[in-house]
Design brief:
Length: 211
Amino acid sequence: MASGGDPLRALLRAANALLQQRRYRAVLAVLKGFRNGAIYGAKVRAPHALVMTFLFKGGSLREKLKAIAQATYTHSRNLAYFVFTYKGLMALQSRLQGKKIPFHSFFAACIGGWLVFGDNNPINSQIIMYLLSRILFGLSRLAVEKGYIPQPKQDPFPLVASLIWGTVLWLFEYHRHTLQPSLQSSMTYLYDDSNTWHDISDFLIYNKRTD
């Protein structure tokens, strides 16, 4: 008499055999991309949302936990959808043209970005700004590698750091509304709230005194 674990073992063997089939490799890569996008999005967003929510947002514990869960879900879902769309379009283009070319990556990512990250919400905005800073650094390095701009004789990073901090604090002081809300909250805590205190309690222990 077959044991209760036999059907499960047979199913696992069949699944493993399917995963080894080269004919399904492109489709399986798309599916695993969806899986990895969902997990990575949750790993990245959950701790960030936890810290930012408890540091800077008011409300009850239930409201805070709900906000954390919603932010984590949105980030995880969007990244999963994007990876799925990107890898699917890459596989489709490669199949149609018989080879992979650089434009495929740009086109597939543009379509995925429009469909998945085109909604202007706080989560998408943070992701796009994160990518923008990396793109600027990457394009600068690429321009030097290709010879479009000369190799700097000295490390330009101190100058870049100086200009970025000078610009962001100028915006914060005089055009605060142009900055992202989470950045406004962080800078308000650092530069505005440190100007106000009443006694030792809200000078050293608490940021703001509560009655």
